[in-house]
């Protein structure tokens, strides 16, 4: 009678890497009104009034401020929409993105 050999089945799980995160950065300028910056931060990034004011003041004092960290697509979309909101009103408001280290 032939021997029956059973082998345990092995299932390989693909290793899923977490997506890289990107920082959304507010760049200071001396022309965009502070209240407008606060309004954009509250609208696009869902910050509270107090958080938005702190981000705006930090950018004003230091020249830049990290607003939030997202996956690449979300960060770029939010940065573009926030910058476009400034352009629509004629302000040089600028948001950029860069990879988080």
TrEMBL record:
InterPro entries, A to Z: ClpS, ClpS_core, Ribosomal_bL12_C/ClpS-like
Entry GO MF terms: peptidase activity
Keywords, in A-Z order: Hydrolase, Protease
Pfam families named among the record's database cross-references: ClpS
Domain Adaptor protein ClpS core: 18-96
UniProt GO BP: protein catabolic process; proteolysis
Protein task: Involved in the modulation of the specificity of the ClpAP-mediated ATP-dependent protein degradation.
Self-association and partners: Binds to the N-terminal domain of the chaperone ClpA.
PANTHER family to which the protein is assigned, alphabetical: ATP-DEPENDENT CLP PROTEASE ADAPTER PROTEIN CLPS, ATP-DEPENDENT CLP PROTEASE ADAPTER PROTEIN CLPS1, CHLOROPLASTIC
Similarity comment text for this entry: Belongs to the ClpS family.
UniProt-recorded name of the protein: ATP-dependent Clp protease adapter protein ClpS
């Amino acid at each position: 009678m032939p021997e029956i050999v059973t082998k345990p089945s092995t299932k390989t799980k693909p290793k899923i890497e977490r997506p890289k995160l990107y920082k959304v950065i507010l760049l200071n300028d001396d022309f965009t009104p502070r209240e407008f910056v606060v309004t954009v931060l509250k609208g696009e990034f869902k910050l509270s009034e107090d958080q938005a004011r702190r981000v705006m003041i930090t950018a004003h004092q230091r020249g830049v401020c990290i607003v939030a960290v997202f996956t690449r697509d979300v960060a770029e979309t939010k940065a573009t929409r926030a910058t476009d909101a400034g352009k629509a009103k004629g302000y040089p408001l600028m948001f950029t993105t860069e990879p988080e280290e």
